[in-house]
Amino acid sequence: MSYDAPLQEVDAEIAGLIRQEELRQHEKMRLIPSENYAYPAVMEACGSVLNNKYSEGYAGRRYYEGQQSIDAIEVLAIERLKSLFGCEHANVQPYSGSPANLAVYLAFCKPGDTVLGLSLDSGGHLTHGHKVAISGKYFHAVQYGVRKDDHRIDFDQVAALAREHRPTLLFCGGTAYPRVVDFARFAEIAREVGAVLVADIAHISGLVAGGVHPSPVGLAEVVTSTTHKTFRGPRGGMILCDDKHRKAIDRAVFPGLQGGPHNGTTAGIAVAAKLAATEEFRAYAESIVRNAKALAEGLLARGIALVSGGTDNHLLLCDLTPKGVPGKVAAKALDAAGIVCNYNAIPYDPRPPMNPSGIRIGTPALTARGMGEAEMTQLASWMADVIDAPEDAALRERIAGEVRALCNQFPAPGIQP
Ligand SMILES: *Cc1c(COP(=O)(O)O)cnc(C)c1O
Fold first, then answer.
1. What is the pLDDT of residue 2?
2. Which of 67, 293, 376, 413 is the most buried (most CB within 10 A)?
3. Does domain 44-276 have CATH number 3.40.640.10?
4. Is 230 considered catalytic here?
5. pLDDT by residue (tens digit) across 74-103?
6. Alpha carbon 364 to chain centroid distance?
7. Mean pLDDT score of the chain, rounded to an integer?
8. Ranges in the chain annotated CATH 3.40.640.10
9. CA distances from 34 to 294, 363, 367 (A)
10. 61: annotated active-site residue
11. pTM over 0.70
12. In CATH, what is the architecture of 290-409?
C-alpha cells in the first residue's frame, strides 16, 4: 500500500465510520447545545499541512525555526479576536475549553487556594470546581447555585460565599444555564472581595460575538471559551484578558501547561473569527435565539416544563417530571426518532446524575442549517409526541422518517448528502 493513498484505500474501516457519522449529522436533528457545524473553511484549515509544524512559544519568540507562516497565522487569529471582542489580549493556544480554564488556575492560584464557581447541578462546568475534577481536587472549591423557585443565579448566595471565603478566582458562566449571565453583578462582587472574575463563555461566545448576549469584556478580567460551540470554529480554546494579565496567562498556557500549539486549530480560529465579524453571523446569532424561543413556546404548549420557565439564549433545559418520563428514557427514544439531545440533571434534581429528570437541548446546529421558527414548532411537536409515548417504536420510526425528509431540505454546512 502506498503511504500517499487516500483514507478510503489506507483504512476503509475508519473511512466508513467517518462516512457513517457524516450521514448521521446530515439526517438527524442535532440538538446538543454545545455542538454545531464548523464552517467548511474551518475544516479545511484544520486538516492542512499546519498539522506538521512544531511552534512552541509565541510569535517572534519561538523555540524552533521555520515559523514564517505560523507566526503570521497566530498573529491574525489574535488580532481578529481582539477586534471582534474588543479585548486587550488573546491567547489562542489552549487545546480546548478545559485546558483554557486549567491555564487560568495555573496563572492565578497555588494548590489549595480558594475558588468559587457555579455547581454542576445548577448548570456549571466540571472545570469550575467540581469535586471529581482537578479544579475541585487541587483547589479549595466553593460552589454557588441557582434559586429553587426561579432557577436564576442566587446573587445573595454568591456575595455571601465570596465574603466568607474570599476566593482568588470567581468563575461565572456555565453549560446548562438558559438565561443571560449578569457579568456586571459578578464583577461587583469580585471587586468587593478582591477576586479575579473569570467569565467562561464556552457556550455563548458566538452569541456574544453576534451581539445577542452582553459581553463580559471590560467586566471580567479574564474570559475563557471554547471555539467550537456557538462560535463554529475548530475544537479549541481561547483566553481573552486585560493587558495586565497577558504575561501570566501566556506563561501559564506555555510553558506552564502545554507544549506545541495545534497550528491548524489556530488557523481555524482565525477563519472563524473573520466570519464571526460579518453581518451574516449577527443574523445567525439572532436566529439561534429566536429559534430557541420558538422551540420553548412549542414545548411549553405541550406540557413540557422548562428550567427557569424559558430561555434567553441558545439552550433549553427541559424538566420532564410532569411527564413522568426520566431524562435518559426520553433522550434514547428521541435519538431513535432522529432527534439527538443529552439527558441532563435539573437544579435540585431528586433523581441520580446518571438517570436525571431532564434533557438539554439547543438550537445552534439546526440554525446553522438554515432552519427557522416553523421548523422549531414542528420539532417541538415531534419531541412531545415521543416523550408522551417513549415506548412506541412505530411512532419513533415514523418521526425519524419525517425528520430525515426535513433534514434533506436543509443541507448541513460542509456535508454532501
Ligand atoms: C464546553 C465547556 C468547557 C470545556 O470545553 P472542552 O472543549 O470540552 O474541554 C468549559 N466550560 C464550559 C462552560 C463549557 O461549556
1. 79
2. 376
3. yes
4. no
5. 999 999 999 999 999 999 999 999 999 999
6. 10
7. 97
8. 44-276
9. 19, 10, 13
10. no
11. yes
12. Alpha-Beta Complex (3.90)
